[in-house]
Amino acid sequence: MGLFLKFEDLTTGIALRLSMLFLVIATSLALYQVTTRFVFGHPSTWSEVITRSAMVWSIFTGVAVAFRHGSMIAVEIIQRMLPPRLGLALYLLASSLSVIFFAILFWQGWSMTLRVMRQKLAALEISIAWVYAALPVGAVFTIIAILACMLRAWQTGLELVAEVQT
């Protein structure tokens, strides 16, 4: 258990850094795009494509971090109103459904990435599969983060149930 939590800490840290990097790239290139369009009157054809692609990667790698920190929409209010065991069961059920969703996203994202490998990004000569790859990569990071959250909740929940019973 401890080894998996350390692994999740590492992978979520990587996801956070990737998300931040892609957000910096998107922001910088958006500023570049605005400058070339409105200051110089000659818009860049490639920067908008990379900006959108970097935003997609930023979002899909950032989802794991959001789950890790409990920033996603949650059933926390209902969970806290329930007895500890039932609240834990509700949390684990909701998290399990999230894992199923991201497993489907992984599968479909992987399939789509393979399907579009021969297509090129507009204004660039690179495969659009690099953009679509954000789905399966982000899904893997997110599944690892959710499973670790479930494990932590299980450990904490059992301790909480033991406290309530004594």
Short description:
Helix content is 81%, strand content 0%. By secondary structure, it is an all-alpha fold.
Overview of this protein structure:
- The protein has 166 residues and is mainly alpha-helical.
- The chain has one domain.
- The chain is 81% helix and 0% strand.
- It has six helices and no strands.
- The protein has helices at residues 2-39, 47-68, 76-81, 84-115, 129-132, 134-165.
- Helix 1 (2-39) crosses helix 6 (134-165), helix 2 runs parallel beside helix 6 (134-165) and helix 4 runs antiparallel to helix 6.
- The longest helix is centred in the N-terminal third of the chain and has 38 residues, at 2-39.
Q: Report the strand count.
A: 0
- Uncertain runs with pLDDT below 50, 5 residues or more? none
In percent, how helical is the residue content?
over 70%
What percentage of amino acids are in beta strands?
Answer: under 5%
**Average pLDDT value?**
91
**SSE string, helices as H and strands as E:** HHHHHH
Q: Into how many domains do the coordinates divide?
A: 1
Radius of gyration, in angstroms, nearest whole number: 20 Å
Q: In DSSP terms, counting alpha (H) and pi (I) runs of 4 or more, how many helices?
A: 6
Structural class: mainly alpha
Which descriptor suits the 3D outline?
Answer: elongated
Instruction: State the end-to-end distance.
Output: 26 Å
**Main beta sheet:** none
